[in-house]
Amino acid sequence: MNSALRQLSATTWAWVQDSTDWGFSNAGVVSSQGVSLLFDTQFTLDATRAMLREIDEATAGSAIRTVVTSHQNGDHSWGNQLLPEAEIITSRASAEHMCHEITPEQLTALSHAKGVDSTSRYAARHFGNFDFSGITVTGPTRTFTAREEMTVGGVTVELIDLGPGHSAGDVALHLPQDGIVFAGDVLFQGGHMIVWSGSLAACVESVDALLATEADVFVPGHGQLMERAEVVDFRGYLTDVQEAAVAYAQDGLPLDRAAARVHAEFAGSLAHPERLFTATAGAYADTGALGALQTLELVKGMADLA
Question: Which of 31, 59, 226, 264 could form a disulfide with 230 if both were Cys (CB 3.0 to 4.6 A apart)?
């Protein structure tokens, strides 16, 4: 698995992974006049250190004064402790959900439990090779709502509170002058989307908010960089899944059977088609056919479908 710091403009770089596997997330940095803003950290301390070394070299040692956290999933935030001098910013909705996230200790225990149930096997397969030792989960020092404009040296950036979608609270970073958006997990490239929030409709609304920026370059939370047309296609994929799942909900089909049908119809060549269980569950919750499922219930659904 390789990762690379790709320069997008004179002041902006994206940290891009070449893997669609669980836990390998993208990030980014804006640097101007000797100061930098970092969008997201990594899943482990070692992975975050490797990224920070590349960023330090590319930005000539500019000080990272601000970290913007797209959401509280560990693969986007568990390296925050390595930047103790930085202000860590996220949305109020994202921060409020922090206490519901699985901890590094819990994920380690789950992925090393050697259980025979589907959830244990799934966790071991996808998370068993990560080293979460030494992580102290470090949350935001400041929150915001709606939108907030700030400057990084001489660069204007816009923080966008997207509300629930992929997670219970997602944040995007927009660079208006460069036409670039760091989307976090509101966008996936090369793999199916995960819907933790309990609403597939909210995921579509989040993509609409990104498109409304009129940006041309989008950095997804996972996978390769996306152009605007690819984001439009991604929205189409979400709405197609939504339409099919809602129809199954209205027909009274049980969730597991509906997820299997959605999987058969939409799996295609994208990685992790079992994640379509979470999209189906989100559509079912949108219709009122069932309530939003908890994290481990969603993981079990994915594991069973896989």
Answer: 226
